[in-house]
Design goal:
The chain has 250 residues and is α/β, with parallel strands linked by helices. Helix content is 28%, strand content 35%.
Length: 250
């Protein structure tokens, strides 16, 4: 679960096109649809804090949980620069996190749930999300779809570039196990103009809708909905990211 060690320092630069504001709009629209006004929100797999800080700027008290100390170090720096005091950052595993009380909503952005790769990991995470949610609270997350694993990831190779860094990765997707391994090489230019290389491996697991719905139901969630876009549209066979909403029943 402690991935993104090499990527932490350059993650935001290489992912500058991620529409965090649009996703936050989707979360707030989902809150209104569910008839809730959460004051305290948990961001699971918060990474460098982009979504945590986006929601904090909109007036929510935020808790960010992530297993990567490197990613959280960046989030702490960004939080300090923004002067957002109502943000608590915790270095904890999504499968075994602990809070001091309940929250009104739990969000998890950019396929963090796909990083739950072990048998039983989904149940552990969903059970804890349910445990720390207020009755009627909302759990919102997104996942990469089976189509994306098969046709976009597959055995393909990709490169992300920025002015002083780039990341190359090779995918290896096993459709039988549902596991996709990403072999990453990150090259970052130093002050002397030379590039430093760092390598790491990440793994995601492909889940279908039935698995996700069953795990949410076992954890105590109801009213599970799966959308194909940030406009609450229905998914189809071309959808590469599902947005999932579930209501905590207690």
């Amino acid at each position: 679960m402690n991935a993104y060690g090499s990527l932490a320092a350059v993650y935001d630069r290489l992912n500058g096109e991620v529409p965090y504001a649009a996703v936050a709009d989707f979360y707030e629209a989902a809150f209104r649809r569910a008839g809730i006004k959460p004051e305290l929100v948990l961001d699971l797999g918060c990474g460098t804090g982009s979504m945590t800080l986006e929601l904090a700027r909109r007036g929510y008290d935020m808790i960010g949980v992530d297993a990567s100390p490197d990613m959280l170090a960046v989030a702490y720096e960004r939080k300090a620069r923004a002067g957002l005091d109502g943000v608590l950052l915790l270095c904890q595993d999504m499968r075994a996190f602990e809070l001091y009380g309940t929250v009104g909503a739990v969000v998890s952005t950019l396929d963090c749930v796909n990083y739950l790769t072990g048998d039983g990991d989904l149940d552990k995470c969903f059970s804890l999300a349910h445990n720390y949610l207020d009755p009627g609270g909302l759990f919102l997350f997104d996942v990469n779809t089976p189509r994306k694993f098969k046709h976009v990831f597959g055995d393909n190779a990709y490169i992300l570039e920025d002015e002083d860094c780039f990341c190359a990765w090779q995918n290896d997707y096993d459709e039988e196990t549902g596991l996709c391994r990403f072999d990453l090489s990150v090259f970052r230019r130093g002050e002397d103009g030379r590039y430093e290389r760092a390598d790491e491996e990440q793994v995601e697991r492909c889940y279908d809708r039935a698995e996700l719905t069953a795990a949410l139901t076992r954890a105590g969630f109801a009213d599970v909905a799966v959308y194909g876009g940030l406009d609450f549209s229905a998914p189809d066979e071309t959808t590469e990211r599902w947005y999932v909403s579930a209501v905590c029943k207690k």
